[in-house]
């Protein structure tokens, strides 16, 4: 026989109904215990987070070599964590607008606009006896190299100049800045990059105003 749906709903609702203050008290106790467990390592976690340091840089970058553009804007952002007393490790992101140049072939003219994106894994060393040089950074990375081609006519004749490639490489930077343990330190960062493309090697020099916090 089919059961009365009204009775089924009533039984289901009865089974789901709260059991009064006792049930609420048990839930509150469980939540309080969970909060205590989570709060126990909270101080240690906060201490570890405070050891992270950040860096921002704004400046100028240029490709080095024959027939390279004049260079342009460069920016970077990174974060690092202490490994030992004078050694830190971290990651960084950078973007460079490297300028453009005009290429002529016969009666046709094309323009190339160069740029690069970089993702770096860096080791940072803080020397103690190199004067105002307070930070040396070195590490591998992936570089997104682009040379965007624009031609009003005869574009096929310039196709070999266009670049859109992700390539491995490495970075080296040195930063001159004030000493001490202030919350924000300002420095001058000078560095270089090498990206090993399939048919070429892009070598880039840069100088940036760096903010370490």
Produce the secondary structure layout.
Elements: H1 5-16, H2 21-39, H3 42-50, E1 53-64, E2 72-82, E3 87-105, E4 108-125, E5 133-151, E6 163-177, E7 185-196, E8 201-212
Antiparallel strand pairs: 1-2, 1-8, 2-3, 3-4, 4-5, 5-6, 6-7, 7-8
Can you describe this structure?
An 8-stranded antiparallel beta barrel has the order 1-2-3-4-5-6-7-8. About 7% of the residues have low confidence. Strand 7 and strand 8 form a beta hairpin. It is elongated. It folds into 2 domains: 35 residues; 161 residues, Porin (Beta Barrel), CATH 2.40.160. It is 19% helix and 55% strand. It is α+β, with helices and mostly antiparallel strands. It has 3 helices and 8 strands; from the N terminus they run αααββββββββ.
Question: What features would you highlight for this structure?
Answer:
213 residues; alpha+beta; Porin; 2 domains; 8-stranded antiparallel barrel; 3 helices; 19% helix
Quick structural gist:
The chain is of the alpha+beta class.
What percentage of the residues does DSSP assign to strands (E)?
over 45%
Helix content: 10-25%
Strand order of the largest sheet: 1-2-3-4-5-6-7-8
CATH class of the largest domain: Mainly Beta
H/E topology pattern: HHHEEEEEEEE
Tell me the total number of β-strands.
8
Which residue ranges are poorly predicted, with pLDDT under 50 across at least 5 consecutive positions? 5-19
Biggest beta sheet attributes: 8 strands, antiparallel, barrel
CATH topology of the largest domain: Porin
- CA-based shape: elongated
């Amino acid at each position: 026989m089919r059961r009365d749906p009204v009775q089924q709903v009533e039984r289901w609702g009865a089974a789901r109904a709260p059991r009064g203050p006792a049930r609420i008290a048990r839930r509150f106790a469980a939540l309080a215990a969970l909060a205590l467990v989570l709060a126990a390592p909270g101080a240690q976690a906060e201490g570890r987070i405070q050891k992270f340091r950040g860096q921002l840089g704004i400046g100028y970058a240029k490709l080095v070599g024959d027939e390279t553009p004049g260079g342009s804007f460069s920016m970077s952002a990174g974060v690092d964590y202490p490994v030992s007393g004078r050694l830190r490790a971290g990651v960084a992101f950078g973007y460079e607008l490297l300028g453009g140049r005009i290429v002529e072939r016969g009666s046709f003219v094309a323009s190339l606009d160069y740029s690069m994106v970089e993702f770096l894994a860096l080791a940072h060393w803080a020397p103690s006896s190199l004067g105002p040089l307070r930070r040396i950074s070195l590490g591998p990375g992936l570089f997104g190299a682009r040379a965007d081609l624009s031609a009003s006519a005869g574009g096929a004749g310039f196709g070999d100049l266009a670049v859109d490639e992700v390539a491995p490489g490495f970075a080296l930077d040195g930063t001159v800045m004030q000493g001490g343990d202030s919350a924000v330190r300002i420095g001058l960062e000078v560095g270089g990059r090498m990206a090993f493309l399939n048919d070429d090697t892009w070598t880039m020099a840069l100088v940036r105003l760096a903010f370490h916090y």
